[in-house]
Amino acid sequence: MPSALPDGEPVPDDGALPAHALAGAAERPLGFYLHVPYCATRCGYCDFNTYTATELRGTGGVLASRDNYADTLIDEVRLARKVLGDDPRPVRTVFVGGGTPTLLAADDLVRMLGAIRDEFGLADDAEITTEANPESVDPRYLETLRTGGFNRISFGMQSARQHVLKVLDRTHTPGRPEACVAEARAVGFEHVNLDLIYGTPGESDDDWRASLDAALGAGPDHVSAYALIVEEGTQLARRIRRGEVPMTDDDVHADRYLIADEVLSGAGFDWYEVSNWATSAAGRCLHNELYWRGADWWGAGPGAHSHVGGVRWWNVKHPGAYAGALAAGRSPGAGRELLSEEDRRVERILLELRLREGCPLSLLRVEGLAAAGRALSEGLLESGPYGEGRAVLTLRGRLLADAVVRDLVD
């Protein structure tokens, strides 16, 4: 969750949505994202809306404390129930992200999930995920989560090499994420993801292959691999600017992506989104698919974004301001926008083109169709799906996904 918030129109104090946003809601899946904004330390590359204890000291008092954070977030879940009214949908997915959700007590995460169950109900096959820092969990913690209803967990591995982790300011030790996968499996977690980052300054091809091999050896059924993005204002950006560490380039990122796809595909993983691979359809992250397919989700927590029926809104960033709004009986929303049909068309192209199933050519206008034809002739789109009316990226197309999207959006 990037730290910068867009502009937008005000959100009503009661959080009420326009009537058209709820029209036809029963036909759309509903998910919840729960943001936990706390971290023990700040990673040098991180631009997310997160806070260490030092950064919060004196800025929010008791309202910003993680000790009572679960109660505050539950207040927003209850607000969601009021705003969505008699919406009959059971929640299809819940994703707890951060920050480091596992800095909270496991019982707190279970209580947050329980509030969603109590207010909305959960689908029989609901996917319930939390992110976790490898150093902040142990078997007892994981067992509490599993017993409490969580069935999917995502560990931040990033790399298997100590010198790479050091550049990223990651505090876990190599080997710990792999051990976490075994511990999660032992207590009954059905689905386990490992997050990897490639392109860190000082990382070699051999380092990247070692990280992939270590991840696969742990036995997850899902792997996410992201190119390192150096965000302005981060410690890593400052170090690169001072010449302390080198900056990797797009060619290096492309080479690493090709290695990832080769290694993961060879191990039985299939890509289903440009940066995500799973061993089966059941192993995919259904919650992220809600985002990519424009479904409805409520984001609870400081800075969290939500989308319901073409209305998108976002909460105030600071934990103290967030808690203060809820304590006063107000929505913590900082702003919102009503998406036009054209906005939604463009977003469908932007997001669906990144998926294995691609996007319908019927979404494209004349200029976009011409661009799609050029992309096909250049080997960026698969010919079979194209003939069936869909734009699906080839491997080369995935390397140039952002450029292809720009052309197709016209």
From TrEMBL:
Localization, UniProt: Cytoplasm
A GO term, aspect molecular function: 4 iron, 4 sulfur cluster binding
Listed Pfam families: Radical_SAM
GO CC, alphabetical: cytoplasm
Alphabetized SMART domains for the sequence: Elp3 (SM00729)
Domain Radical SAM core, residue spans: 24-270
Function: Probably acts as a heme chaperone, transferring heme to an unknown acceptor. Binds one molecule of heme per monomer, possibly covalently. Binds 1 [4Fe-4S] cluster. The cluster is coordinated with 3 cysteines and an exchangeable S-adenosyl-L-methionine.
Record-stated family: Belongs to the anaerobic coproporphyrinogen-III oxidase family. HemW subfamily.
Record's protein name: Heme chaperone HemW
Source organism (scientific name): Streptomyces olivochromogenes
